[in-house]
Amino acid sequence: MQEGEDKMATENNNNEDASDRWVAYRPDLKILDCTIRDGGLVTGHHFKDDMVRRIYETNIDAGVDYVELGYKSSKKIFSSDEFGKWKFCDEDDIRRIVDTDTPNVRISVMADAERTDYHEDILPKDQSAIDCVRVACYIHQIPIALDMVKDAVDKGYEAMMQLMAVSVVQENELNSALKAVAKSPASAVYIVDSFGSLYSEQVRDLTKMYIKAMEGTGKDVGFHGHNNCQLAFANTIEAIVAGANRVDATISGIGRGAGNCPMELLVGFLHNPKFRLRPILECCRDVFVPLSEDYDWGYSIPYALTARLNQHPRAAIKMRASDAPDDYVSFYDQISQEE
């Protein structure tokens, strides 16, 4: 009888602990806003200074930890005549926006492997308003990405690793990559659902795999989701529940194609009182409702179809800009035949 009572008491305690988690918060969880960086994939990185400043100030008011302003892209590869200045994030442009005396938000930029002249264009930290460099790479670019991480840390920055298109990476390759990242000076490594094709079970398993690989290193695991199947928010929650401590979001979900996890949903879900929803809602109303009249982003069937086939959404983006953006059947026939 005593054994049964002890078992019941243990189960009750476990249930109480589980329910507590839904009314508590994880103080070490950090949000990175990539509205300008990922939104730049919609606008060609053409944002006026007053809009960038509004988004920067909104994130400060909302208590967000990082604001990612754009890319550090090579001007030898990408033309400044074609792309806006947030494709390059020159120091003078950043300093017109940010207040370097604001201690409660960190400025991030993304550096793509093989698309960034990182030795020259990423200055030593004492000459820069940037705090963090996120290195993005595909699995075959791991060696150069690791060198980019080391270069950034040696210059005084925090560096994080973004391993893209993880849904098409073989498990043995992924394990090898994670072992290499674990030995690097990166502060965090992100799961990136580049094609928006992952489901919750996959996100959960990947998060646990990444956490196990980083065990004992002090590195955080993060998640960056795309909304091709309308799962970016749900998958972000799944990653958090599984132990991820870094998560990305964008205001009004703006981002390439189907977009990203909407910041207003994420902040509304988290219980940490440092995060505030009202400034984000104001920015949605004042900035992104008008912007949506000129640019196309967010869920639509073509993006769901490319995700279902685990393909890059470039074909869906092209289709959405065509004369027949709603001819889903023809589009499905076309991309299915390419499999």
CATH class of the largest domain: Alpha Beta
- Report the average pLDDT across residues: 92
- Count all strands and give the number: 8
Order of the strands making up the biggest sheet: 1-2-3-4-5-6-7-8
Helix fraction bin: 40-55%
What spatial form do the alpha-carbon principal axes imply?
Answer: globular
**CATH fourth-tier homologous superfamily of the largest domain:** Aldolase class I
Task: Give the class from helix and strand content and strand pairing.
Answer: alpha/beta
**Count of individual domains:** 2
**Element-by-element helix/strand order:** HEHHEHEHEHEHEHEHEHHHHH
Report on the biggest sheet: 8 strands, parallel, barrel
Low-confidence stretches: 1-16
CATH topology of the largest domain: TIM Barrel
- Give the N-terminus to C-terminus distance in angstroms: 62 Å
Question: What's the number of helices?
Answer: 14
Rg, Cα atoms, Å: 21 Å
CATH architecture label of the largest domain: Alpha-Beta Barrel
Q: Report the β-strand fraction as a percent range.
A: 5-15%
Notes on the structure:
There is one protein chain. This protein has 339 residues and is of the alpha/beta class. It folds into two domains: 27-291, Aldolase class I (TIM Barrel); 301-337, no CATH class. Helix content is 44%, strand content 13%. The protein contains 14 helices and eight strands. Strands 1-2-3-4-5-6-7-8 form an eight-stranded parallel β-barrel, surrounded by five helices. Strand 6, helix 8 and strand 7 form a beta-alpha-beta unit. Helix 8 runs parallel beside helix 9 (232-242). It is globular, with a radius of gyration of 21 Å. It starts with a helix and ends with a helix. Residues 1-16 have low confidence and may be disordered.
